[in-house]
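Weekly puzzle thread! Below is a chain. First person to post its structure in token form gets bragging rights.
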Amino acid sequence: MSISNRFEILWSPVHPDRFLTFGTDLTLYRVQKISEGNVSKSQGQTIADDMFANLMSVNTENQYNMKCVAWYPKPEPENLLAVGLNHGRVVLTSFGQDGDPQGLIGKIGRASCRERV
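Winning reply:
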């Protein structure tokens, strides 16, 4: 079985300055204007002459098993994600918020991810 080195970007439907990347893990970034003191080369990436993608969080719970990701389109719970796994299950996950008032994180369901062409 070979592991794909696929890498994709998904913009937040709620926060226009946030995006995540997924491939072997989920990584959350916040886009900021470059100004004196807010750029750390070890915590992000310059994406334009005056813009920087600042690393916010990494989620490695479903490492190497991700097939697709969907971002919950409402502000609460913040950064709730549905992750479609290679074996056909869907897991709800997030980026380590303090609470999960609806008790959704960690629930597993049976669904299918539509293949991207």
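Puzzle host: Confirmed. Bonus trivia for everyone else. Residues 29 and 41 are 13 Å apart (CA to CA).
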